[in-house]
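Sequence in, structure out.
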Amino acid sequence: MGLGTAALGRQQYINLPLRNKPTFDLASFRQDGLRILETAYQEGIRYFDTAPGYGMAEQLVSNWALDKNDPTIEIATKWGYTYVANFDPNATQHEIKEHSLAKLDAQWSSSKDLLPLLTTYQIHSATFESGVLQNKSILARLLELKDQFNLLIGITTSGPNQIEVLKKSLDIDLKGKGLFDVFQITYNVFDQSIGPMAETIKDQKKRLIIKEALANGRIFPNPDYANYKEAYQKLDLLAQKYKVGADAIAIRFNMDSIPVYKVLSGASKPAHIHANLQALNFELEQEDLESLKELATDPRYYWEERKALAWN
């Protein structure tokens, strides 16, 4: 498992709302983030995924990880989003997406401070609409960084057309070799659309990273999502069977159903890390795995539902 740091660097994210919103204090928030990083490390996590678009997260990871001076730590970051909410709980805009060469160079100037622990540099939410996969100057610059700093170059994807974006990325060759080595995608019990591509990525000896394994909190019982009643029942029964939480069942599903390099925990509390890591203590029996596969929904519906989630 790895740790995604979106929740450590900004106090709001696209997710189900909390029943009781805590009072926000920036200094305390920073210390909480450091404590979560350290908890993950002490629990054995060595892969940390961050981004400039995650508020203070990249700087937090940089300061913490470089002080650890542990070469087993692996850091992945991204470029393409700028955080603009400035920790204002009433902000109407939280981030700006910009897939330009200027933005790549500007964010690389800070992200390079993660070296030598930085192994992976990713386009943040690559889409056809942004044109980034057709931009020859950007692709050439990424290849230059790949060769100069021995980096793995990757993309992250979101949306109902993840498969099409992946196929396009896999086809990009520069100077006789594929540019992209890492694919961070959304995959969980509800959106299983990427499943058929997983073996292709494995066969090409590339890395598959899973984000949003808990479907932005939608795997947990919620009266607003009566359409997931069957899912809640199945997850609860399996949680009882394996003596773990529903989160561990959902994460284990990702590990057992497709070949992955890492599944990212998005934990925002130490207790969540402990609960998520219980997924490493068992394997799903085949009948249970097949039962969870039956929960797959149409990806178009899944992403329409996700789009309706607010920043909380």
